[in-house]
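Narrative summary of target 7.
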Amino acid sequence: MLKGLNKVSDGLNKIIRWILILCFSVMTVTYFGQIVLRYVFQTGLHWTEELTRYTNTAMVMFGSAFMAGKNSHINVSALEIAVPKRFKKALIIIQQLITGTFFTWVIFIAFDMIRLAGTQVSTNMRIPMRFVYGIFPIAFSILVFQVVVFIINSLMTKEDV
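Modeled conformation, tokenized:
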């Protein structure tokens, strides 16, 4: 079971890596295009700023899910240094449990946001906002899954995390 979970986790990280590359590429092309259009041709495209904003949001959300898969997201490292070595693994697992609990709760909030504002359309691109808001529960679900896999791996190994 653990091998299967780790395989799924690695697969998700590979997919997310490509999503991040795509997001960064889209942001780079749209920013560059907008700069050229504004300063060379004295015109611009209204939708590029909106696309870049939504792409940046997706990049941040999927990037945080990717970081969770690598156990590289924010934690209280000062606390980890302060506790005795024998309690460090338990502290890290507790931090992960808090992270997983928080983001599980945020998944429900994201679905509420989709329900409340998902029927609106974006100002310039005219896309339904449910697609933009849909990024959040997907990324948070991946993050929670990665945290659960990390906790299970931590509990199954003898060495320190």
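The chain has a mean pLDDT of 89.
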